[in-house]
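Reviewer comment 2.1 asked that we show a complete input and output for one of the modelled complexes. We chose the magnesium ion case, as it is the one discussed in the main text.
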Amino acid sequence: GKHRITEYNPQMGEENLRRISMEQQLRDALRRQELSLHYQPKLSVCRHEVVGMEVLLRWHNPVLGTVSPAQFIPVAEQSRLILEIGEWVLEEAMQQNLAWQRQGLPLLPMAVNISALQVHQHDFVPRLISRMTRLGYPGSRLELELTEGVVMEGAIPVRRYFEQLRQLGVRISIDDFGTGYSNLGYLSRFPLDTLKIDRSFVSDIDAQPDKQQIVRAIVQLARSLSVSVVAEGVENQQELACVEALGVDELQGYLFSRPLPAELFSHYLGATRGVA
Ligand code: C2E
Ligand code: MG
Ligand code: MG
Ligand code: MG
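Response of the prediction step:
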């Protein structure tokens, strides 16, 4: 490759070679404009109004085809390419949301996934703030989805950082909640707005009482922390009825919409505008 030399070693195995080749392709993905963003609506319970969206990265490469984030995000993290990619995601997503505003579409908060490596950069928050200032992007329209790990490492400087963002109206949520090892003490001290229940607890929940117990406990925890709860991965009416009965506040899932490219998402917004 252009940026690195890798000697062939028969012990490397196919898996390793695939990872290296993916990393090499990913290195050029931004320059070759192979990355794009999709947007998935979040809806309120009961009325099912669109109240926000999540930004999800997509990669199409001529050699590898369409690669799912589950495959390439870990490679981007191991190679630290996620830092550069994460910057691009924030810039592109904010520009898109501002473009929608100019087109007269409803102003919606946008949730962006942030990798732990990004948060660990000492200047992550000041750079985010100066980006928002430069673009004229209001804090109230940004939400950061962090992993449980980031919150649990929640050293005081990290918490101060996020408190600074929250004063600008930026919301903080914990993604895939329930799959990590949350320490309740840390959780209560971290400046938080939302817990997003992991899809694995929502899938088939209507037929699985143990999942219902878990979601009930997460909703109770959220109430006591005064934060809201989002159920992600809602795929059918039975799951919907179940999570609504358990008291979640917002919904996200294929039942309502898959993640959509920008143009289709704006059609979706236009079509659902004002519909209760
Ligand atoms: P996530 O943040 O938990 O995102 C939700 C994932 O669930 C998305 O997968 C979404 O397409 C999928 N999903 C939503 N509704 C349903 C449903 O009803 N059924 C099923 N089966 N899946 C549903 P996706 O887009 O493949 O992304 C996977 C993960 O990759 C994300 O999980 C997130 O952790 C990571 N990721 C995606 N974009 C970014 C990004 O820009 N930056 C970072 N750091 N990570 C990202
Ligand atoms: Mg997410
Ligand atoms: Mg999630
Ligand atoms: Mg996930």
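Residues 40, 56-57, 68-70, 73, 82, 86, 89, 113, 115, 145, 175-176, 199, 232-235, 252-254, 259 surround C2E (ligand 1) (CB under 6 Å). We note this here for comparison with the apo prediction described in Section 3.2.
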